């Protein structure tokens, strides 16, 4: 019986080839999107699920409150670790890992700055279960020892057998010489724990200079490179441990401290980008939810096409149903027959969607995680997901038409009293309005996201970013001065300046300061930038009052921005000049106030900022070129000068414009995704409209012939078919305008500086959709109107 259902379903699909193609294309686009998004969700949800006792493992995180400035970080005071082990019995195990990015050298071969290195102790390996090939965690009890993964061993010692790597020497930052004492396998499975090299924690503890530099004994050190993990005993509630941690730290915090410490479940690390995960890519749960909603919308559009076309063709299928019922077929069997057609059509769409997946992965490679590839089709989960998706979509698309068609009465059918589904035209209108409402919301959202992105790029940032780049100096201050002297001699170079970072930078250096009589009079967390005397004129930052700082390698004078001056209680910038600012427990005079400039993207409000000279400024050399300079030739000269001073280090110039790009990657990806989704939604909607238009013109062929015989023009016939579409799209535009305005107004609230939603977006989107809809319908109406009426009426 099932084989018979499938054979009849295939026969009907072949008989109505065009309508079948319309349905298959509409569903396949939605199914391909569902497949790709499922792959992304499955990939992200698989992170760190393989750890033993992972439900009892947590990371200790800090929420720092500095006078309304909230900072969330994985950094916690290192002295907290021994306190946890000694005084909190609910903690079964606790371990610390400290990220480290040194310059690596082996004998005379330099590898440059290496990532994925960490200071670790043996206890770390009792929490995170690595497979040891050589050695054991006990090797990290001694100073000047390191453990490598197989991959890192192959990188440092290519062609050397792993057993021969043991005992080899590795040098960090030209001063720390360690011996390789163990080899481990990298963790199998998707994980944020991607460390490739583990240096014994005792290396830091044995060197007083390293201890001081790393803030080992400081209760106010919240370096984000620190991560502290705990494993709780079975049955212990994390809230009780959090309370014990707060009790431990209270004795060491300031009396008025509002800092909080909480336990972050291991499973949440991959999804909390606010805190970070060892500088690895993290997922965003709200984004995953939005992607899921987008899939539902696209699948819904395809299902709407199916329902529309199936109900529109009811009259053509009526005799088939009547004959089936008169020969004894039950209502249930008729339902199964039409559901079978739906499932067969959905299966074809699923097969086509699988072929479309590689193209989608390639087109959206900047948006899709690197781990999401066609190799995932080898996993058993996808073979379960695809048939489940086919069943759900087939049922969703076919259930309503099946029940409606199965209700036909055989007597009425065989007397030719059924020409369609009475009263169901209104349903098709509602479904068509729904389709175009979804498409219009996506069009409007795409335009508004694009306008906000343009605004962010065009807004005056308060400094000049054109033709400016900076070089991170890997050597000492003396070698950096040597590079500066060489570049200063180039006629193409307009100006040079030292500065720890560009005016707009992803990282933030903050410290406690106090100034004036306003809300900043007490200790408050303030962003600090370390610069030289050329920095302000180099970036053309406007000086509102006072003067620039004088040349110095130490912090002797301070510049503040106008936001800081205002928060400190000064009515005019001039009033702040000469005031003493408490900085690093020392009083420094404020010699100038600069105009506010953006140090972060448009998402963040401009905060109080202080600028001062410091030796840290000389870690980066900022370069601007003359407007008429040959950029390519000049960059070659600068690279040659770099190679003379730093022969073993890679030349990398970072343009200030590129720093701006970092802040809007999410918006650009969202715009790309919305543009794609809009195109798909319009395509599916117009495809369905085309199918309905073709069916409607077939049904009204004789009416068109009679109208032409009675003198109707081609234009009037086209208008006859177009007016209904115009009405439906106008209703859809009205509905979409309200939804889009509300959704995009909420989205814009994520930006401290944003556009007002342009009024013209809504009529423009409606006009575009109306034009596409009219072209789709009018093309079929024009074609029908041009047919000779004799041919239309010959059967009469």
From TrEMBL:
Q: Which family does it belong to?
A: Belongs to the ABC-4 integral membrane protein family.
Its transmembrane ranges are 21-41, 287-309, 334-360, 380-406, 427-449, 673-697, 725-744, 759-782
State a GO cellular component annotated for this protein. Answer: plasma membrane
Q: Which GO terms describe its molecular function?
A: transmembrane transporter activity
Q: Which residues form the ABC3 transporter permease C-terminal domain?
A: 294-410, 679-788
Q: Transmembrane helix: is it a keyword of this entry?
A: yes
Where it mainly occurs, coarsely classed, is membrane
Kindly list the places in or outside the cell where this protein is found, as annotated in its UniProt entry: Cell membrane
Membrane topology field:
Multi-pass membrane protein
Any idea where the MacB-like periplasmic core domain is? Answer: 20-245, 431-640
What protein does this entry describe? Answer: FtsX-like permease family protein
Task: For this UniProt record, give its keywords in alphabetical order, as a comma-separated list.
Answer: Cell membrane, Membrane, Transmembrane, Transmembrane helix
């Amino acid at each position: 019986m099932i084989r018979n259902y499938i054979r009849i379903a295939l026969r009907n699909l072949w008989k109505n080839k065009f309508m079948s193609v319309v349905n298959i294309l509409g569903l396949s686009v939605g199914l391909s999107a569902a497949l790709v998004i499922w792959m992304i969700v499955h990939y992200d949800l698989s992170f760190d699920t393989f750890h033993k006792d992972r439900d009892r493992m947590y990371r200790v995180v800090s929420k720092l409150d500095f006078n309304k400035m909230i900072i969330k970080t994985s950094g916690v005071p290192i002295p907290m670790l021994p306190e946890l082990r000694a005084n909190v019995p609910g903690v079964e195990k606790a371990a610390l890992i400290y990220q480290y990015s040194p310059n690596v050298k082996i004998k005379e071969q330099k590898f440059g700055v290496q990532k994925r290195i960490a200071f670790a102790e043996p206890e770390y390996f009792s929490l995170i279960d690595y497979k040891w090939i050589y050695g054991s965690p006990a090797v990290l009890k001694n100073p000047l020892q390191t453990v490598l993964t197989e991959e890192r061993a192959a990188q440092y010692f290519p062609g050397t057998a792993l057993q021969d790597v043991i005992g080899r020497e590795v040098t960090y930052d030209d001063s720390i010489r360690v011996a390789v004492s163990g080899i481990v396998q990298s963790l199998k499975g998707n994980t944020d724990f991607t460390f490739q090299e583990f240096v014994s924690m005792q290396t830091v503890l044995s060197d007083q200079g390293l201890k001081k530099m790393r803030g080992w004994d400081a209760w106010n050190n919240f370096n984000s490179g620190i991560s502290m993990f705990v494993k709780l005993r079975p049955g212990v509630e994390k809230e009780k441990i959090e309370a014990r941690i707060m009790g431990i730290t209270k004795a060491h915090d300031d009396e008025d401290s509002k800092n909080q410490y909480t336990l972050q479940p291991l499973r949440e690390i991959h999804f909390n980008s606010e805190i970070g995960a060892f500088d690895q890519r993290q997922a965003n749960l709200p984004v995953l939810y939005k992607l899921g909603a987008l899939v539902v919308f696209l699948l819904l559009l395809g299902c709407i096409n199916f329902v529309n076309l199936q109900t529109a063709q009811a009259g053509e299928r009526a005799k088939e149903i009547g004959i089936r019922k008169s020969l004894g077929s039950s209502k249930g069997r008729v339902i199964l027959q039409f559901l079978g057609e739906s499932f067969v059509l959905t299966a074809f769409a699923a097969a086509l969607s699988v072929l479309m997946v590689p193209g989608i992965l390639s087109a959206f490679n900047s948006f899709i995680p690197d781990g999401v590839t066609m190799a995932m089709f080898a996993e058993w989960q996808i073979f379960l997901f695809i048939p489940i998706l086919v069943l759900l979509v087939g049922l969703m698309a076919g259930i309503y038409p099946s029940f409606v068609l199965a209700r036909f009465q055989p007597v009425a059918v065989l007397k030719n009293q059924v020409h369609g589904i009475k009263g169901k035209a209104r349903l098709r209108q509602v479904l068509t309005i729904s389709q175009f409402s979804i498409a219009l919301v996506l069009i409007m959202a795409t335009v508004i996201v694009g306008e906000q992105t343009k605004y962010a790029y065009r807004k005056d940032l308060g400094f000049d970013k054109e033709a400016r780049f900076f070089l991170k100096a890997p050597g000492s201050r003396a070698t950096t001065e040597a590079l500066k002297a060489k570049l200063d001699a180039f006629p193409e170079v307009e100006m040079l300046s030292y500065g720890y970072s560009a005016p707009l930078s992803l990282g933030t250096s903050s410290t406690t300061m106090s100034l004036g009589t306003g809300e900043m009079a007490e200790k408050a967390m303030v962003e600090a930038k370390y610069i030289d005397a050329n920095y302000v004129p180099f970036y053309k930052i406007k000086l509102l009052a006072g003067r620039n700082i004088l040349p110095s390698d130490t912090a002797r004078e301070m510049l503040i921005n106008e936001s800081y001056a205002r928060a400190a209680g000064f009515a005019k910038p001039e009033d702040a000049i000469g005031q003493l600012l408490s900085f690093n427990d020392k009083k420094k005079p404020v010699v100038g106030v600069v105009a506010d400039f953006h140090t972060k993207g448009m998402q963040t409000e401009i905060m109080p900022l202080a600028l001062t000279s410091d030796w840290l400024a000389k870690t980066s050399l900022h370069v601007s070129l003359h407007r008429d300079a040959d950029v390519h030739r000049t960059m070659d000269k600068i690279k040659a000068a770099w190679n003379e001073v730093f022969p073993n280090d890679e030349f990398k110039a970072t343009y200030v414009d590129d720093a701006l790009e970092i802040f809007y990657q999410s918006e650009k990806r969202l715009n790309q995704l919305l543009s794609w989704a809009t195109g798909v939604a319009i395509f599916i909607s117009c495809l369905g409209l085309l199918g309905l238009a073709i069916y409607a013109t077939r049904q009204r062929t004789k009416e068109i012939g009679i109208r032409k015989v009675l003198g109707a023009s081609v234009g009037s016939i086209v208008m006859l078919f177009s007016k209904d579409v115009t009405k439906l799209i106008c209703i859809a535009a009205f509905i979409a305008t309200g939804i889009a305005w509300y959704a995009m107004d909420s989205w814009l609230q994520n930006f401290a500086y944003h556009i007002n939603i342009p009024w013209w977006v809504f009529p423009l989107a409606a006009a575009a959709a109306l034009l596409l809809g009219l072209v789709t319908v009018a093309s079929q109406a024009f074609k029908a109107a041009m047919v000779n009426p004799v041919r239309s009426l010959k059967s009469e």
